[in-house]
Amino acid sequence: MTSDTETPDVPLDLLVPSAERLGPDPAEQRLAALYATGGGRHVRANMISTVDGGAWGADHLSGSINDAADWRVFRVLRALADVVLVGAGTARAEGYRALRRPRGPAGAVPGPLELALVTRTGRLPEELTATSPLVVTTRQGARAIGAAVPPDRVVVAEGPRTAPGEVDLAAGLDALADRGLAAVLCEGGPHLLEAMLRAGLVDDLCVTTSPRLVGAGPGRIVAGAGGPGPAAGDRPARLGHLLHAPGTGTLLARWELRSA
Ligand SMILES: NC(=O)c1ccc[n+]([C@@H]2O[C@H](COP(=O)([O-])OP(=O)(O)OC[C@H]3O[C@@H](n4cnc5c(N)ncnc54)[C@H](OP(=O)(O)O)[C@@H]3O)[C@@H](O)[C@H]2O)c1
Fold first, then answer.
1. HEC states along 152-193?
2. What's phi and psi for 70, nearest 5 deg?
3. Is the C-beta atom of 191 inside 6 A of ligand 1?
4. How far apart are CA 143 and CA 120, in angstroms?
5. What pLDDT score does 172 carry?
6. Among 7, 111, 125, 254, which is least packed, fewest CB within 10 Å?
7. In the chain, pLDDT over 70 holds for what percent of residues?
8. How would residue 130 be classed by pLDDT, with cut points 50, 70 and 90?
9. Which residue is closest in CA terms to ligand 1's atom 41?
């Protein structure tokens, strides 16, 4: 794995909307332009899937199905975001800690890259709470967190749109925006993504297709029981752009959901 301080030395071919090779570039001028959000409030989700739909590999982690091409785009997306929003399950599984903003990409947001965790229960590992992440949770979750995270870092988001004990994700995003965290990068996991999609909160969905199969076992990038919501279930998506890594065949798509 390449360190997040270096630009992966891997070319990418832009296939859609125009054919173009994006050679390695420490400033990532072209990728930064392709993924620019235009400022203001924007919610992007970024996920990786195998060809046969697996969201993780044999070790139950998504790191085992990604590669340098995915990493190249991943670090640009983080550079352009104010905050990374992630479900507590992924934070626990993948060992999330305080984030470092990748250096180099043009248009990178100045200042630290915030991490916001979404949890109903508030049961977060001590190594994580010790880094004082933002936490978007329920009243019960906030009680469970207690003093482990400074109170001004805990957003209680329950509201009329959600059942008691559920996080109102729209209210959570409003609270983040009120803190100046308008450009949101949701890195999953599958349960959080399902709820975000169902609530109609995702502007664009970036999906890397990893050139491998993992067979039965791993779940998809969307999981959960589903339920009512303004954007639940079957719906169209519009291709924004498509990149191809010539060395491996990895495909990196940006799907626009609002304009589809
Ligand atoms: N392929 C990819 O791109 C990708 C990306 C991320 C993760 N993953 C993989 O996905 C697996 C984890 O899957 P997962 O579905 O369990 O991840 P997840 O969605 O991050 O975690 C589920 C947990 O997050 C919290 N959560 C999620 N949605 C919530 C909501 N709407 N409201 C309140 N809390 C919410 C809850 O935490 P509490 O239990 O604390 O209440 C819930 O139990 C790992 O193997 C990870 O490696 C893959």
1. HHEEECCCCCCCCCCCCHHHHHHHHHHCCCCEEEECCCHHHH
2. -60, -45
3. yes
4. 11
5. 98
6. 111
7. 98
8. very high
9. 120
Whether the CB-CB separation of 176 and 155 falls below 8 Å is answered with yes
DSSP track, 79-148: HH-SEEEEEHHHHHHHT--S--PPS--TTPPSS--EEEEEESS----HHHHTT--EEEE-HHHHHHHTTS
Backbone angles phi, psi at 115, to 5 degrees: -120, 125
Query: Ligand 1: which of 59, 149, 191, 252 to mutate, most ligand atoms within 8 Å of CB?
Result: 191
* Minimal-distance CA residue to ligand 1 atom 40: 119
Residue in the structure block whose two tokens are 């997306």: 77
Measured CA to CA, the distance from residue 248 to residue 238 in angstroms comes to 25
Q: State mean pLDDT over 7-33.
A: 91
Supply the DSSP symbol for 62. G
How many Cβ atoms are within 10 Å of 238's Cβ, its own excluded?
12
Indicate the top mutation candidate among 56, 137, 220 to test ligand 1's pocket, ranked by most ligand atoms within 8 A of CB: 56
* pTM for the full predicted model: 0.95
For 41-75, give one letter per residue: b (16+ CB within 10 A) or e. ebbbbbbbbbeeebbbbeeeebeebbbbbbbbbbb
**C-beta 256 within 6 A of ligand 1:** no
pLDDT-derived band at 2 (thresholds 50, 70, 90) equals: very low
The predicted model gives 104-119 an average pLDDT of 96
* Of the listed ranges 5-9, 233-237, 238-242, the one predicted with least confidence: 5-9
Asked whether the predicted pLDDT for residue 68 surpasses 90, the reply is yes
Residue 3 — pLDDT band, cuts 50, 70, 90?
low
